[in-house]
Design a protein that fits this description.
alpha+beta, 2 domains, four-stranded antiparallel β-sheet, 11 helices, 18 strands
């Protein structure tokens, strides 16, 4: 499955994906393994959600006591605010005394969980209470901002088309968070500085970066994406973004020396070379594979964005990215008098192969901490 499906979802705003329960459980367990009390006494907000269908709501409600939560709040958009509305109200709504058809189509809903409301001696999904919001549930509204401000942790799968804006909304609130987005988001000018400054990192992650989502109208996706047997849509290069710590983030990356890589690397692009390529327009060497990072090189290295999945802040320092024209490690700009495709070359790191310039996809600029201490 190719990245263009995520891009297509973004273009069409058809980005209403429901995360699997097992993926949520696996991710949360990674934080609990490091700190069993990470959610203890905290209020968790699930905005951009759809509580009647959401596995986020189900997971946190069913594990309310085990996690030690103080409060769970989940909000949804009104169907009329969506480009692809739900065809009819759910049975959950229509059987509630709160149900009002006009409000259902124009207002969002807010679900809360704080205590054992049905007196069965346990707190779970059956104790959820709900009411209509005053507005449509847009996370940018004052109503949802107030919920953000009183929450401790924000967890959700926001619309891919609004990822930058949603992330800024979280950062503005100075909250702990765990959200899903495209791996390519790390290259966004609004996102990368947060990663560089160690205010956000990748979570434990989906298996091999492959995420499976349920969607309201899955068959509208291109052939080969939708699996009719599972009823799920598969996307590659999807990541969890967070500022919650987890153990895998502190596992050191085992590496070979530069000489060993040039002689023994499993990658034919490196094995047999006399030396690593240097960028012509950045003061850094090109390292096309994370496992080919030389353990003994003290200078700046340009590595794939997938490196962030292995990034250990105790081992490496993130310095920049090759997609920023103002990056301090950029040493040269090309003119159209020199190269017809100068604009493309200026947008990326460039290496020369057989005398010809080659533009390289975005690279994270890093260096070893130990070798520069």
């Amino acid at each position: 499955m190719r990245n263009e499906y995520l891009s297509e979802a973004k273009r069409t705003k058809n980005d209403e994906f429901y995360t699997r329960y097992e993926d949520i459980e696996k991710e949360i367990n990674a934080y609990l393994d490091l700190d069993p009390n990470v959610f203890q006494g905290k209020s968790v907000l699930l905005p951009c959600d759809d509580p009647e269908w959401s596995n986020f709501t189900k997971y946190f409600a069913q594990n309310f006591s085990r996690l030690g939560l103080k409060e769970l709040v989940s909000t949804s958009y009104a169907p009329s605010s969506k480009l692809k509305p739900i065809d009819q109200p759910t049975l959950f709504e229509t059987e509630s005394p709160e149900f009002d058809l006009a409000k259902t189509h124009t207002r969002g809903k807010c679900f809360t969980l704080t205590s054992d409301t049905n007196y069965d001696r346990k707190i779970d999904i059956n104790d959820l209470e709900w009411h209509y919001l005053e507005g449509d549930g847009d996370f940018r509204s004052e109503e949802i901002v107030r919920l953000r401000d009183r929450a401790d942790v924000i967890v959700t799968n926001p619309p891919f088309s609004l990822f930058r804006e949603f992330l800024n909304w979280i950062i503005d609130g100075n909250k702990q968070f765990l959200v899903i987005g495209s791996m390519n988001a790390v290259t966004y000018k609004e996102v990368f500085p947060i990663i560089r400054d160690n205010r956000m990192w990748l979570g434990n992650g989906f298996q091999a970066g492959n995420a499976f989502f349920a969607v309201p109208k899955a068959r509208e996706y291109a052939a080969g994406v939708y699996d009719p047997e599972s009823g799920l849509v598969k996307f590659r290069n999807v990541a969890w973004f967070t500022n919650l710590d987890h153990g895998r983030r502190h596992q050191p990356l085992s590496l070979m020396t530069m000489a060993e890589n040039l002689k023994f690397s499993k990658h034919k692009e490196i094995r047999g070379l006399e030396s690593y390529f240097r960028f012509d327009n950045y003061d850094a060497i090109e390292v096309p594979f994370t496992d080919a990072i030389p353990s003994d090189y003290s200078g700046v290295m340009g590595v794939p964005i997938s490196f962030l999945d292995k990034y250990n802040p105790d081992q490496f320092e993130i310095l920049g990215i090759t997609q920023r024209n103002d990056d301090p490690y950029k040493t040269k700009r090309y003119s159209t008098d020199e190269f017809v495709n100068a604009n493309d070359l200026n947008a990326r790191g460039v290496i020369f192969i057989d005398g010809k310039p080659k533009s390289i996809y975005a690279r994270i600029l890093i260096r070893h901490k130990r070798l520069n201490s």
